[in-house]
Amino acid sequence: MAQDCITIKGTRGGLLILLDASRDFNEIKANLAAKFTAARGFFRGAAFALVPTSPLNSQETAELEAICREHGLVPGNNITLPSRRRPGGNQAEHPDPVALTSTGLPTLLDEGNLRNGQEINYPGHVMWLGDVHQGATIRAGGNILIMGTLKGNAHAGSQGDRSAAIVAYRMEPEQLGIAGIIARSPEQKTRHPYPEIARLVGTRIVIDPYLSPKNSRN
User: Fold this and answer.
1) Distance CA 130, CA 92 (A)
2) 139-141-147-149 Cα dihedral, nearest 10 degrees
3) Global pTM value
4) How far apart are CA 174 and CA 17, in angstroms?
5) Does the structure show a pLDDT above 50 at 8?
6) pLDDT for 104
7) Distance from CA of residue 148 to its chain's centroid?
8) Average model confidence (pLDDT) across the chain
9) How do residues 70-118 score in pLDDT, each as one tens digit?
10) In what helix (H) or strand (E) does residue 184 lie, and over which residues does it extend?
């Protein structure tokens, strides 16, 4: 059913379209179109951003964006959710999960800037809309997607999932971890002006451009 792989979250800045990227891509396209058809033009004119649980390739992204445009939506920038964290607290508050993947893991979606000493600990996937500063940490049982700059620590697959990935709009971490394998950033960090993805290859964590051909699902 559509709600199993597509969740549309309304914000003041527009729509966040959460996608369960582990599902068949044709199913995702059909369900996205069905959602908009059922809405009967309700979303027309709204800004949108696609938020997949794991990377899509450039063609898949373009096809989904085309469906959104066909129904009157327009691409948006800086679409965020109100912060749900406790003021001044070191432990971020968990909002209700907003999506489920086929593995049964819930997805935590939240917004803000994680500061030094603050930590997110979540058993499922984490989608964080904002920056993760030095000394801050996100730990997730599944994937981690950071729609901002990662300068702190990110640990995915904390329950041993070696297929987990970490994606950041800008990847400048202190430390990465996947399924217990740890990689520390070199003193001379190389900054790249594009999103990147970290995955476990054997016993090493490898970072590639997010839209690299090797990250295609085909």
Assistant:
1) 13
2) 30
3) 0.62
4) 30
5) yes
6) 57
7) 10
8) 81
9) 999 998 866 655 444 443 445 554 444 433 333 457 778 787 899 999 9
10) strand 181-184
Amino acid at 118: Q
Closest CA to 168 of 186, 192, 140, 202: 192
Distances (CA, A) of 65 to 4, 19, 101, 131, 161: 19, 12, 21, 25, 30
140 Rama class: left (phi>0) / alpha (psi -120 to 50) / beta: beta
DSSP reduced 3-state for 138: strand
Burial 18-32 (b: 16+ CB within 10 A, else e): bbbbbbebeebbebb
Specify whether the CB–CB gap between 44 and 75 falls below 8 A: no
Residue 215: band (very low, low, confident or very high) from pLDDT cuts 50, 70, 90: low
DSSP class of residue 85 equals: S
